[in-house]
Design a protein that fits this description.
With 415 residues, the chain is an alpha/beta fold. It folds into 2 domains: 3-59 and 366-413, Roll (Urease, subunit C, domain 1); 60-358, TIM Barrel (Alpha-Beta Barrel). Helix content is 33%, strand content 22%. It is built from 12 helices and 18 strands. The chain has helices at 74-78, 82-98, 112-119, 169-181, 209-221, 233-242, 255-263, 273-280, 290-313, 333-342, 344-358, 409-413, and strands at residues 3-10, 19-27, 30-36, 47-50, 55-58, 60-65, 101-106, 127-130, 134-136, 163-165, 187-190, 226-232, 246-252, 268-270, 316-317, 376-379, 396-401, 404-408. Strands 1, 2, 3, 4, 5, 16, 17 and 18 form an 8-stranded mixed sheet that branches. A 5-stranded parallel sheet has the order 11-12-13-14-15. Strand 11, helix 5 (209-221) and strand 12 form a beta-alpha-beta unit. Helix 4 (169-181) packs parallel to helix 5 (209-221), helix 5 (209-221) packs across helix 6 and helix 10 crosses helix 11. The longest helix is centred in the C-terminal third of the chain and has 24 residues, at 290-313. The mean pLDDT is 96.
């Protein structure tokens, strides 16, 4: 179906100011032309959508999701019936698209089978870039075993989040090749301690440079890259030396490390502020221990300052939510968190144009320009004056994915 969006306030995410009274013509799933609404009409056989002055913008991209992480307690998750696991994961995938996220990068946990299910039309979801199993060192962030546990951690293959424990460059290389064999689009490694792991602290450095470089080598051999969970500067510096491309979280970034990131070629920082705010508001319980709460609150203390430093230095800043469990529906709040530091336009560009460059699909999506795929969302409020509107899926009145309308609240509700 050809589409014509009339009388739109166009936020094209190229950096230009919004353009009122704009017409966007979509032909065969791609943006054909952009003109003033007073210009020549679109194709006669097109469906015309009167935007009534509302904001039309590119579909959002979330560069750090965990669609298969359903419970804060991984033991509780592994005990769920497989059918329940599969259906709950499918619901998360479909809800992400309905919230306006037309592309997401799963940063660990989601199995290739769900990407295939979306491709086959079994579930309706965004474009998925998956990382498969986490790669962690023994005792690292990703090793969920209690200190008293001498066995392996229970998983439901293909349905619950899984870690591959690897020690030494050869083992890390083998683990990276294994996740790639299973269908990963990029490789996820744990380069520092984390809040949800029982055996480390946030500032612990995990994996040596040689181990990280082994993962980078394996990923590079098939034309992809490594993203690394990393909080502190020592861990980030190791990642940069090894050639890691995408630094996740970075809550304790310092100036010297930011300068190195700026000097490096093709390196991105993906902050994930909202997950710390949501988790820090919770008390211990349901598998979330007092120690985990302490570490989450510690991570929150550095989040805004690190983002402010990265923004001042001019780093390439992407956007990721990292929301877990029953917080999956709140991923859009990350944009408002970044807007507090960077301003609304820069935060929105991080979640569109910059994330598209990070995922290496900037020629296809991320901005509204002729020739690009028609991944579009129509909002009933102005995200530049109030970026919080992107946190509420009800404000996303319409979603077009590759030119196909997959959500149309006006048609459903008659208004």
């Amino acid at each position: 179906m050809n589409l014509v969006f009339e009388h739109a306030t166009l936020l094209d995410c190229t950096g230009r100011d919004p353009q009122p009274e704009t017409r966007v013509v979509v032909d065969d799933g791609r943006i054909q032309r952009i003109t003033p609404s007073s210009g020549p009409n679109g194709p006669r056989d097109a469906r015309v959508i009167d935007c009534q002055g509302r904001t039309l913008m590119p579909g959002l991209l979330d560069a750090h999701v965990h669609l298969a992480m359903l419970e804060l307690d991984p033991l509780k998750e592994a005990a769920l019936p497989p059918a329940v696991l599969a259906l709950r994961i499918a619901r998360n995938i479909e809800a992400a698209l309905a919230a306006g996220f037309t592309t997401v990068r799963d940063a660990g946990g989601l199995d290739w089978g769900f990407k295939q299910a979306v491709r086959l039309g079994l579930i309706r979801g965004p474009r998925l870039f998956i990382s498969g199993a986490f790669i962690s060192q023994t005792g690292g962030h990703g090793d969920h075993r209690a200190r008293s546990d001498r066995g392996t951690f229970p998983v439901v293959p293909g349905l619950t989040s899984e870690s591959i424990l690897a020690d030494g460059p050869d083992a890390v290389r083998r683990a990276a090749r294994e996740v790639l064999r299973r269908g990963a689009d990029q490789v996820k490694v744990m380069a520092s301690g984390g809040a949800a792991s029982p055996s480390d602290e946030l500032d612990h450095v995990q994996f040596s440079v040689d181990e990280l470089a082994a993962a980078v080598e394996a990923a590079g051999a098939v034309g992809t890259y490594v993203l690394a969970h990393a909080y502190g500067s020592r861990a980030i510096q190791n990642c940069l030396t090894a050639g890691v491309r995408s630094i996740e979280h970075g809550n304790f970034l310092d100036e010297a490390t930011a300068d190195r990131m700026l000097a490096a070629e093709d390196v991105f920082l993906v902050p994930t502020i909202i997950t710390y705010e949501l988790l820090a508001a919770r008390e211990a319980g349901d598998g979330w221990t007092p120690d985990m709460v302490r570490k989450i609150r510690q991570g929150l203390t550095g989040a805004d300052d690190s983002l402010s430093l990265a923004f001042e230095k001019g780093l390439q800043i992407g956007s990721g939510s990292d929301v877990l469990a029953d917080m999956q529906g709140e991923r859009g709040k990350e944009i408002a968190c970044q807007a507090r530091v960077m301003g609304a336009m820069n935060a929105i560009i991080a979640a569109t144009r910059t994330n598209a460059a990070l995922l290496r699909i900037e020629k296809e999506v991320g901005t509204i320009e002729p020739g690009k795929r028609a991944d579009l969302i129509l909002l009933d409020a102005d995200p530049l004056s109030d970026p919080d509107v992107l946190a509420n899926p009800d404000h996303v009145r319409l979603v077009a994915f590759g030119g196909e309308i997959v959500k149309d609240l006006d048609a459903i509700l008659g208004g």
